[in-house]
Amino acid sequence: MELGILAILISAIAYAMVARRVSNTVITAPMVFLTVGLMMAYSNLMHVDHVQYLLHLVAEISLIILLFIDAARTNFDALRRQSLWPMRMLLIGLPLTIGLGFLLGIPFFPDWPLPLIALVAAIMAPTDAALGQAVITHPHVPERERLTLTVESGLNDGLALPVILMLACMVTGLSASDADQTNWLLFGLQQITLGPIAGGLLGWVGAQVFLFVESRKLTAPTYEGVAALALAGSSYLIASLIGGNGFIAAFVAGLFFGHFVKGRCRFIYEFTESEGQMLVWASFVFIGLGLLPNAIELLTLPMAIYIMMSLFVVRPLAIYLSLLGTQTQQLTRLFFGWFGPRGLATALFALIVTEELQQEFAHSVLVLSINAVWMSALLHGMTAVPGAEWYARKFAKTKKGLV
Known about the structure:
Elements: H1 2-22, H2 29-43, H3 48-72, H4 76-81, H5 84-108, H6 114-123, H7 133-136, H8 143-172, H9 178-215, H10 221-241, H11 246-261, H12 267-270, H13 275-290, H14 292-297, H15 301-322, H16 330-338, H17 344-354, H18 359-402
């Protein structure tokens, strides 16, 4: 196990030393660390039991913190000024993506229960900004487009999570008695109601305490970061203790905290650019190490076609339709539709729900989800820089033509 951890650390050092140069190419961090994990799997540097334990540990910590941080970074003032595009994509595009993914899955997986197909479609819907970082940070891509993709990727995982949990409860209840199904329904309702209540209360209290101690110079930025991480973890644990969903609580706590603090906690803006990168990189390594070899081996032709259709047709069509009637150009709608990579959220949500599902259902969900992650990492990673530059050129020509 020590050799495996050492290999991961050396890989992180090596990538960090050339990250600036590599970021301008078709190679992305998720691609690199998925490959590192896959190579480690075939070289047997870590025992599979250790990998499974570390994967679940890192996955849960990553999701709790990243949900909180993404929510806390949401710029509500900018969102209010330019809210039409991201709100359309979230409130219309996200449900359309799940619905179209469900309809597409029916002919591809005729032996699957309908709730299981819907669950897979929901897990495939959230997008990951880490895989499209080159697009979001590209200086020539207009600010409004970058803000729209940032807001969408930051919020859609939190919005999709209640749907995923409810569908997971339905799938679990398929083999249960009527009484058990009722219990699962009540459990699902508790998860999506008590979680937001706990998260909102803790986020508001945390923000008031932060503003109080900051106004009296009782703390410093270093310790503010520790407190923010502790607040994310506390919201998760308290919600879990009272029967709510901890992940939803962490997301809502971040929304409330960030809204009231209004950018005065520098840590939440710096974390994803520093320490947060290590969490993301480690997660992709463990996905490649613990899940990818088995997922590739068990990939079926219907699964592969479904994933490709999801990437190339389902999301682009859903986003295109959601933006009809707005001032977006056709080029912009296509650009938004393509740059919705499936990444960490898809893998982590699959891991979370499979713990509660029957083995046969869990196996199907996990295999499809993990294959979707590596395919998306490859395709979206390779097109991120060229696609951003192409869009910037086309947009500039269009704007010049209008002037």
